[in-house]
Design brief:
446 residues, alpha/beta, Urease, subunit C, domain 1, TIM Barrel, four-stranded parallel beta sheet, 35% helix
Length: 446
């Protein structure tokens, strides 16, 4: 039995059903769950002093490409739109090995942890040189984050009208077979699961209709979730209209890609009818504001989606299109962009933090995560607001307006991953050195 008491949090932002914010409160973590919340609780195990801190649920990242952490700020891709950006980077990614995948996932997940994230999805859709999904699963186990990897895929190469080079696509029969393999080997459907596996054909412009349909049938037979990119920018919409004769939302609906077991990344260009479709079917969206800004894709209609009832979470997206992996910074950007688009009252700091916590957990089908309530998983972020970032703040609970972007402490399933701003589960300095060497090797071949 493990037990940790987080004592006297200056502000405890619970994100529970009543959205309570408690002052000078205690949280007892026991056997991977929140056991008690109150004042003056009696410790029986380790005690963590949270005076001068804001305590929140762990943040939830609903869209990432961890392998891209090795290709940040590539010069030829810095100023390109989505399709040109992809064509520049595909040849680099085609040289990745299992070691590249493992190390980049280590770094990306550690970066997320330092930004308060306790649960992350990942969308891995290319498998060159013997790469397998378990390369990232092994990295997540070492870092200690709760993980939702998805077995992505590309099957339509340039010779058949797709975007990726033929060398990076796979045969569809092999893709489906490997989806079954990784689900059977690694998917854990239990409430406290540290690893759930999803099915994730990359995008409408890199896989066939048949693969989209077959993947949906497979996912529902196995009881796992489904993920893809959709309606990311104007090029994406034009491709859908030209190739399929319909908008992306209609294409998704026709192929069975709507429902509470589905979430789509980006959705920057959804129109009113598509927003209504997603709301009626409880289809989730991973909003990636920094990546959308970086690639010039636009501002997603987040306010309209929230008002309609579309399940919405946040994603940092890949670090080749962000180029960071800081989830609390992503939440701030989401808030600011809605204000740019709709006015200063379009979104407040509390709502943006809600999207980053229980919103993302709902999108990933994890109602036991994303909030601090008795019985919820013991995923907790502790933010020290005694430093310069929050100096002079009248409302420390408004973390996204004035607060740190790195946690002091982080717990996942009651286990401490970050202590005093440092990752403690593995040797991060050694991993960074290896990451730097791998990136240098990739850059020297260009």
């Amino acid at each position: 039995m493990t037990e940790t008491l987080i004592r006297r949090a200056s502000h405890l932002v619970t994100m529970d059903d009543d959205r309570r914010v408690l002052r000078d409160a205690d949280v007892l973590l026991k056997d991977g769950q929140v056991a008690e919340i109150g004042h003056g609780l009696t410790p029986a195990g380790e005690v963590v002093d949270a005076q001068g801190c804001v305590v929140t649920p762990g943040l939830v990242n609903t869209h990432h490409h961890l392998y891209q952490t090795l290709t940040r700020a590539v010069p030829a891709a810095q100023d390109a739109l989505l399709f040109g950006w992809l064509k520049t980077l595909y040849p680099i990614w085609s040289r990745f090995t299992p070691e590249h995948m493992f190390v980049s996932a280590q770094i990306g997940l550690a970066e997320l942890a330092l930004s308060g994230c306790t649960l992350s999805s990942d969308h891995l859709y290319l498998y060159p040189n013997g790469v397998r999904l378990e390369d990232t699963i092994a990295a997540a186990a070492e870092v200690g984050l709760r993980f939702h990897p998805t077995r992505g895929a590309m099957s339509i190469g340039e010779s058949k009208g797709g975007l990726p080079p033929d060398a990076l696509v796979e045969e569809e029969e092999a893709i489906l077979s490997d989806m079954v393999r990784v689900i059977d080997a690694f998917h854990d459907a239990s409430a406290g699961s540290m690893c759930r596996v999803g099915v994730a054909p990359c995008s409408p412009f890199s896989v066939s209709r048949d693969l989209m349909r077959d993947a949906a049938v497979l996912a529902r037979d196995k009881g796992v979730m489904m993920h893809t990119h959709l309606a990311e920018n104007d090029e994406d919409i034009a491709y859908s209209l030209a190739q399929f004769g319909c908008r992306p939302g209609q294409y998704a609906e026709d192929l069975g890609w709507v429902g509470p077991d589905v979430w789509h990344a980006h959705c920057v260009k959804l129109d009113a009818s598509e927003i209504d479709l997603f709301a009626r079917t409880s289809t989730g969206v991973a909003h990636c504001p920094c990546s959308n800004c970086r690639l010039g894709s636009g501002i997603a209609p987040v306010r309209a989606m929230r008002d309609a009832g579309v399940p919405l979470g946040l994603g940092v997206d890949g670090s080749a299109s962000n180029d960071a992996g800081n989830l609390v910074a992503e939440a701030r950007q989401a808030m600011l962009l809605q204000r740019v688009a709709r006015g200063a009252d379009a979104m407040n700091a509390q709502e943006a933090l809600e999207i980053a916590t229980r919103g993302g957990a709902a999108v990933l089908g994890r109602p036991e995560c994303g909030h601090l309530s008795v019985g919820a998983r013991a995923d907790v972020a502790i933010w020290d607001v005694s430093g310069i970032e929050a100096a002079g703040s009248w409302d420390p609970a408004a973390l996204l307006l004035a607060g740190p972007t790195t946690v002091r402490d982080l717990f996942v399933e009651g286990r401490q991953l970050v202590r005093d701003g440092q990752v403690v589960t593995f040797d991060l300095a050694t991993a960074i050195a290896r990451q730097t060497a791998l990136a240098k090797g990739l850059s020297e071949v260009i």
